Structure formats: C-alpha cells, structure tokens
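Reopening closed ticket. The problem is back. First fold of the pair:
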Amino acid sequence: MTQQREPTMVAEVFRRGASAFLVKSSPVAELLTAIEEALLERVYISPSVANKIVSDLLHPYRRKESGVRLTARQREVLRLLADGKSMKFIGEALGISARTVQLHKYEMMKNLRLKTNAGIIQYAIHHGILSA
C-alpha cells in the first residue's frame, strides 16, 4: 500500500515481486479483494491506478505533456517544423533568427520530454498542431 499512483512505481513494485498494488485510501473491501486475487496467483491493481495506467497507454502524449503549455510562438514554430520547413525558412517567416527557432524547438523538446525530431512531429500530429 502506498500513496504513489505513478505507473513507473506500479511497474517497479511488480518487478520486485508484489502481487497487488493498492493506494492507502483504498477501502477495506478492496484490500480483501487484493488478498483474494493474490491467493489465486493473480495480480490486483487499485482501479484508480489501473485507470491512469490505461489512460497513459492510450494517450502517451498527454502523459509527456505533464501540464506543459506551449506558447503561441512555440506552437507556430512547431507547426512549421512539423510541416517540414527549415529553421531558416521558419525564422524568415516569423521574423526571428534561425537560432531563435532552434532555441524554441529545444525548449519545447525539453519541456515535453521528447528526444527526437520524430517525437516532436508525432506530438504535433496528436495535438492537432499541423497546418490544414
């Protein structure tokens, strides 16, 4: 039992041999269900945690975003990058230097925890940022 609800914590607990994962606020009936499942050699995860895990699996980019909001300028840069435009072209189109475009790109990637150009383009696709 824990207060933690992060999927990475759940995975680590099961890697270490646990049969169940419950949050401390779980009702007693849930604890009994978890014990019954463990005795039957089945895994049990608190429904609220299981829902978060499923949501993260179905919507991985929401998880990466983790409350990060892109500025209007970052969205413009991202839209043009995802459209395949060069840093120089974007800079000229937006009236900023190519270096500033690059800084916007790397700041977005850092904040969104994306590591590749493909990742940032996938983010743009999944968030409807691409041009029509």
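Second fold of the pair, where the issue appears:
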Amino acid sequence: MQAPFIEPIPTKESCWRAIVMMGRNVASYKFALAESLLELSNQGNEFVSMEDLAAPFSRNLCEHLKHAGKQITSSRSRFLDTCRQANAGEISNEALIESTVRLGFVNVIDAFHVVNQGDTPVRFFNDDRKARGGITLTDEFFYLSEGNQFNNLPQEAEARWNLVETAWELNMAANLLDIEYDLEGGQLYVPRRDTSRVDVTSCRDALNGYQKGKCFYCFLDISIESGDDRLAHVDHFLPHILKEHREIKNLDGVWNLVLACRACNMTKLARPPQARYLDRLNTRNNYLISSHHPLRETLIRQTGIKAADRRSFLEGAHRTAVNTLIHTWSPNEEFGVAF
C-alpha cells in the first residue's frame, strides 16, 4: 500500500507541497497564487487586501505568458486576455490590477487548499473577501515561512508550473509526453519530433518537493538554492556506470534519479543501494505518479502501468545492478523517516 504524501499528523511543509504538487490542474492560477503568497511573507502582514495580492499574482502570470501562451485548459480566459494586453503595453498597470481583483481570483481562492477532493488539514490563509476585502494569512503560514524548508518552496512551485504549462503549450497527449534528463545541464527537457528540445526546469527543483526537502538516503535537509552548502546532488539510484552494460533501460530516466546530500553522494560511488531502499524509491516514484500529468506519464511509460509492474521493474533492475557491480551501499546513519 502506498504511503500517503500527507502524514497522519501533517507537517505544514507536506500540506503546502501537496497543494502545489499533488493536485489536478485546469489553470495555472494556483501556482501564481502560491508564488505570490511566498513573496508576500517577507512583508509580515497578516491581512492582505485583494489589490495587494493582485500585484504579484498578475505579475507572475504575465511573466509566464511571455514564454508559454497557454495557461489554462479552456479555450479562452478574459483575465488572461487582460494579462496579454498588459504585456503588449495596451493597458496600464492600474487597469491590470483592477481586472485581476475582479476576474483573477474567481475560483482559485476557494480551490487553493483542496487536494484529492478535500481540504488540507492545514490552512495557510482564510478567505475574508466579503468581510474585509482580502485574505488573512494564518499562523501556520508564518510558521511555514520560518521553517528550514521555506527557501526551497518558490523553486518547487516554479518547477511544477513549468512542467504543467509545457504539457499544455506543446498540446501533446499525456501518454505521448516524455520528460528526459540532461546529465550535463541538470535540466529536465521534452524532446520534439523535429529533433529539437524544450527545456522545462531544473531536475533538482522538480524532484525536491516529492522527497520533502530531504536527502533520499539519510533524510538530512537538503537545499536547491545555488551556492548553499547543503545543495542537493542529483544521484542515479542505480549507478550511471551501468549504462555501459546496457542491461537496464533508461538509467537517466526520472524513475532512477534521486536527490542526495553531498556526503551520501560522495560515499555511495558506483554501488547500488541495499535492496531495502527499493521501497523508498517505489514510494517516491508513486508520489510523482500521484501528482498527475506530466511526470506521471513519463514514469508510467518508464516503469509500468500497474503498481505491481512498477515494483517488479525496480526489483529486476536492482538484481541486475547487484549482479553486475557486486557490492551494495547504505549510509552510515539515517535521521528520522521522511517518506
């Protein structure tokens, strides 16, 4: 049975990440709202008027419209048309803010906390539009902003947004979209039929939230901020050197990529982890599959449609790796259990 992404006693970080990464999306407004809330945390104000929220919300959407014109699955949006007009210099910023307040928040405020047809047990704001003309940030939101995972959250939201809008923009069926990994650049990308490619997002940014900001092996906190001493390493769970033997398919696939702290990555070397870590990899991959399109389709294509098929694939690949490389590895110590 798959472990739930939100624990029985949920952390604030898990609830936030579930909101951003685990839901189905018909528009990108949730991502714009998430990034706006994270930005507003710096101001420290409990109450946020709709006008103050509209400024970062519309700016985030306008920026994404510049490189990805499709930000919604429906054919038309009056609000997005206004954002396009703002990008073209056809309307003033004041007009954009007014339109955002009137049109931009129609559904997203109500739907933000909904994951899997129910509200998350932790709320990050309360809807006070009728009484006060805005939203009220909760204590849980400010506790979230004080946590050691907070600096990772904007990049995770941006990565998820990039993945979703790329799928929409390419107008490809979900079962045809393939996300691949560029080993040298550290980017996830989509290959085009004309042999070109579309860069999507950093592999670190895309995977970190599904590991809850922890090293895959020892569960120490990791970072996805460039220059941070705890910067995550992208590690091949089954070592990259196995590509030379060509017995395991797609070792650069998302299924085989995990984020590790520097210490684990440097001591693991070219050794497959012990078999008990297959459960953890299977759980992480199922989190990705539960997050829906597009990483879902990539992983299913790489490892199998049914849960039993995916498990069998991992077990077979691990047996091949151990038979080839002989020695296995595990970290000297694990710090709690994250997933």
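Update: turned out to be a display glitch only; the data is intact. The mean pLDDT is 92. Residues 307-325 form the longest helix (19 residues). Please close again.
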